[in-house]
Amino acid sequence: MMIIDGNGCVLGRLASITSKNLLEGEEVVILNAEKIMLTGNKDWAYAKYKQRVDRASISNPRDLGPKYPRRPDDIFRRTVRGMLPFKKSKGKTAYKGLKAFVGVPAEYADAELTAVPEAEYKDLKKGIELGEISKLLGATF
Predict the structure, then answer these.
(1) pLDDT digit string, tens, across residues 65-98
(2) What torsion do the CA atoms of 2, 84, 47, 38 make, to the nearest 10 degrees?
């Protein structure tokens, strides 16, 4: 089992590394999903995710989809799902091995964390946290 702290990691890089590990059969747990960083400026990132949420809610009210998540852990899980062959059985079983949490649950408080240096966010001036985007979209966590 691989336990990763998402604090200060880039969303896409962390998601691609996670999806590769999931396809290899490893279980992955992501902690502090609200502190995962999006590169780019705040207005661009908010517009991108707001468009997805709005497009999902404009559809027919009787229609059951598509739905786009607002919570940071669910946004991360959806990003990883897009990098897996989800419609095949291999992708579905790999996706079941992913757990993402906002904050650190009590069961993982003393766990040994795995560092992912490829996903670290270097430029602290630009970018926005996934938790801020979620709050702008109306999520409560």
Answers:
(1) 678 899 999 999 999 999 999 999 999 999 999 9
(2) 30
What is the percent of the chain with per-residue pLDDT over 90, rounded to a whole number?
77
Q: Which residue has the tokens 């630009």?
A: 126
Q: How big is the CA angle at 73 (ends 24 and 105), to the nearest 5 degrees?
A: 90
What is the pTM (predicted TM-score) of this model? 0.92
Backbone angles phi, psi at 129, to 5 degrees: -80, 150
Round to whole Å and give the CA distance between 139 and 60.
22
Tens digit of pLDDT for each residue in 12-24?
A: 999 999 999 999 9
Spatial strand order of the sheet with 2-5 comes to 2-5, 28-31, 98-100
pLDDT of residue 126: 82
Which tokens in the block code for residue 140?
A: 């409560």
